[in-house]
Amino acid sequence: MMQQGAIESETVRSEADEAPRLEVRHLCRRFDGRTVVDDVSLSVMPGQVTCLLGPSGCGKSTTLRMIAGVEQQDSGEIWADGQMLCDGRRTVPPEQRRIGLMFQDFALFPHLSVAENVAFGLRGAGGAAGGRVDELLCKVGLPGKRDAFPHELSGGEQQRVALARALAPSPRIMLMDEPFSGLDNRLRDGIRDETLALLKAENTGVLLVTHEPEEAMRMADEVALMRAGRIVQKGAPYNIYNAPIDKDALAFFSDIN
Ligand code: ADP
Ligand code: MG
Questions:
Q1: Which residue's alpha carbon is at the smallest distance from atom 12 of ligand 1?
Q2: What is the distance between the alpha carbons of residues 102 and 175, in angstroms, rounded to a whole number?
Q3: Hey, how many other C-beta atoms are within 10 angstroms of the C-beta on 34?
Q4: What whole-number distance in Å separates Cα of residue 151 and Cα of residue 117?
Q5: Cα-based angle 30, 33, 39 (whole degrees, multiple of 5)
Q6: Ligand nearest to the CA of 226
Q7: What pTM does this model have?
Q8: What phi and psi values does residue 66 have, to the nearest 5 degrees?
Q9: What's the pLDDT score for residue 17?
Q10: Best exposed site among 72, 104, 114, 124 by fewest CB in 10 Å?
Q11: Which of 34, 35, 36, when mutated, tests ligand 1's pocket best, judged by the most ligand atoms within 8 Å of its CB?
Q12: Strand pairing partners for 222?
């Protein structure tokens, strides 16, 4: 799109496009002498979805927790927008990482209204919270629900509130740990498409964890296939599906219909 000042904005844009939102290099974590995350490297570009796909127990959630900063890595580096978040010597505390989190159980506070739940995502933001809460509720399609309580909402609506709360601090990266697994099939497709459209519109980088190949195929720009702590294959969903690296990967994809 050519406009006035195109050269200047072009330069800015191409630099922004080339720097990954998130870059993880050689991440390792051991528990009780057992390596559960083994030399994991991956990146997420602005406005893109990288899917960390693998069977239960392969180390996906541990990887996400280290990126969020709530679990310490044994070695490796985590970078966001060119800023070092943790390299083993220095570490940026979780609340300063500008990383959003969404989990399978939405973990809304049952005793707080919708607006109060969303405002919780803005804690520390001071007096500006009211307007921003309404803006976020509009964004996720729940403008009329600000005074409702979680038990008065459907599962899909609760998920939207969780999304509004996660979006509140304008995170540059959203980490999603199987956030759609608890929703019934009818709701799921719509909500996950809407969620990712919102995140892409904000140029957020998304790292989506899932054990379901079908979800990765549908949502991902890039897939990192994980097994027993290691990334065994990376690529565009179509390429991974069509050329699985080995028999186990082929079997893993075989139940997609
Ligand atoms: P996934 O999310 O892919 O299902 P996890 O990252 O939750 O896998 O777990 C990977 C492995 O690490 C599992 O065997 C799990 O039991 C183990 N694990 C995770 N957290 C801890 C912990 N705090 N202490 C000991 N073992 C753990
Ligand atoms: Mg997990």
A1: 36
A2: 6
A3: 8
A4: 13
A5: 35
A6: 1
A7: 0.88
A8: -70, -40
A9: 53
A10: 124
A11: 36
A12: 50
